[in-house]
Amino acid sequence: MQSRVVLVTGGGSGIGAGIARAFASQGHRVAVVDRNEGAAEKVADQIRADGGSAVAVVCDVGDPEAVGRAVEQVTAAFGPVGVLVNNAGFAKDNNVLDMPLADWDAVVDTHLRGSFLMLRATAPAMREAGWGRVVNISSISALGDDERVNYVAAKAGLEGLTRAAALDLAPHGITVNAVGPGVVQTGMTEVSAARAGRTLEEHLRVQARSIPRGRIGTPHDIARAVLFFAAEDADFVTGQILYVSGGPHG
């Protein structure tokens, strides 16, 4: 794959950081986009220390003006974005009856609205180039999960956006796909453990028992799937959802 400009949202930690580092290791120019400036800078610094090319960009993906500024900053630094990875997100879990409207809005705005805004801001340059890759990071929770109605709805919506945008953009040489991680050990794992009333170690043991592969996923597992969808020769694969979860499980 020739060197591309890759924009990764939520790139300052967890799965996003793993994806950013994976693209950089393949020789791509990576924009690490995150709300947390220190986290984005840390990942960009690590990439540069390893000989890669990276820039840190601060952005709230739910804010259309901030998204526009971020894409302009990336374009000025590296050129037009060729690969967009919509990974930004977080959890504010609760059941449907107790979900505060503010928590619903916050999660949906970041996962779903933010992905739409970033896609809308980067796709015109891809269309002009006649080539582009968009990879949305969904979740196995899109299939249904208790006590996290906002997160499930946002991820299910993101998968719908993936399929619809794939149809709209296919004639322009742009593919749109999604990767749905299962249980992956990141900072959000600690939040899930606390919600379940377990220590992190206990939570990981319990989760591993429910996974056919017998282990917890890593950001590297997800990054490899994202790299596949972004590849030059994945041109005939679009509108697809790939669950990377260690085997079918609920």
Plain-language structure description:
This protein is of the alpha/beta class and about 250 residues long. Helices cover about 50% and strands about 15% of the residues. The protein is built from eight helices and seven strands; from the N terminus they run E-H-E-H-E-H-E-H-E-H-E-H-H-H-E. It has helices at about 15-25, 35-50, 65-80, 100-130, 150-170, 185-195, 200-210, 220-230; strands at about 5-10, 30-35, 55-60, 85, 130-135, 175-180, 240-245. Helix 3 runs parallel beside helix 4 (about 100-130), helix 4 runs parallel beside helix 5 (about 150-170) and helix 6 (about 185-195) packs across helix 7.
Largest sheet: 7 strands, parallel
- The separation of the N and C termini measures 35 Å
Please count the helical segments.
8
| Alpha-carbon Rg, integer | 17 Å
Give the structural class.
Answer: alpha/beta
Order of SSEs: EHEHEHEHEHEHHHE
Helix percentage range: 40-55%
Q: How many beta strands in the DSSP annotation?
A: 7
Strand adjacency order, main sheet: 3-2-1-4-5-6-7
Mean pLDDT across all residues, rounded?
95
Strand content: 15-25%
Coarse shape = globular
Stretches where pLDDT is under 50 for at least 5 consecutive residues are none
